[in-house]
Amino acid sequence: MSALIEKLMPGDAEGDGSFGALRTKAQKVLMQYGFPHRKTENWKYMPLGLLEKRTFSDSAAHGSEVPTRPEFPVEAGLVHVHNGRLDIDSCRLPDGVSLTGMLPADIDVSTLDETGPADAFAWLNLARFEQGWKFRVEGRPELPLAIVTTCDENFDVAVHPRFCVELADGAALTLVESQSGEGAGLINGVLDLRLGSASSLTHVIERRFAETALIQRTTARVADAADYRAFVLDGGGRMTRQDLVAELVSPGATAGISGVATLTDRSLVDYHTAIEHRVGPTESHESFRILADDRAVGIFNGRIHIVPGADDSHSQMNTGNLLLSESARINIKPELEIHAEEVTASHGATIGQLDDDARFYLRSRGLSDEQATALLKYGFAAAVFDTMAPGALRDWLTARLKEHL
What we know:
Strand order of the largest sheet: 2-1-5-8-10-12-14-16-18-20
Low-confidence stretches: none
Number of domains: 1
Largest sheet: 10 strands, mixed
Helix content: 10-25%
């Protein structure tokens, strides 16, 4: 991967002095271990050679004129990130949410692997990000906060956006990431979520890319009696990688991850989730589904880790997947790593095809074969959103699911 290092790390890490030590450490790890390869277990399905074949323009030249701020279909505060840069002048924040520049103290690298290439892209983000932004949430804002990411067809650079969302004790927020793009660049993002005591965060991720490559690491650190809920709808892209980690660090912390990926054409989507039970009692649940058609490839690796002493922790994971063509591929790997005795943990994993009997039944009730197939696919995919609170945001998400299908 030396060629990829030359493309994505052209020269020494730069930036203001306050981040100098962190950037130097990141560059040292990258230069020592490089990027993942086929023998790196958690990256073995990712075609990183695709990035080697691309020519990325100078990132300093990607400041094209920012388009008009997009309108979000649900009433919400809105932050627009275009071609990797936040348009600070167009930000519209909900009451109770503030935005400031990120400081070195806002960056925690303790969970990153510095003994190998597994977290190379997170280190790359630290070495190359231009400006990090921190949202601070006080109280319980009525409106969601939407971070809308767009890329135009001329987007051909590697960008490294970095955000932190911090919830005060007792705060509550709905955070929406809506991402789409057309150009052949790379978005290598990091999002840190920190939930204070008795806080609550509903995190919605909705994305669909064409040729844009996306690699994103999201880490949620959940304090005592706090609750983190993630709902994911991924419409696919040429190369998408999402690492989603929930760390339950105090008694009473809970987390849930519910997601679906609907893949067509040559899409490749790779989701690696991890729920870390650091203490007990804590509780988590996870449900993830992939529908792969045409020549699409879907990967899901879900890990539940209960450390020694985290007694009275409870976790459940389930993944169900549909192969819709003979050329599509789905690779799944559920993992349970349990080092405590007084716990309950379970997982289930299936890969199958649409039920011909169910399709025949619907056709016998007057539906065409296309209608029956579409209805079965929608019913299978939409089930992951059953635990989401009813309202305009859920209606929008299910409407987007219909468009993806």
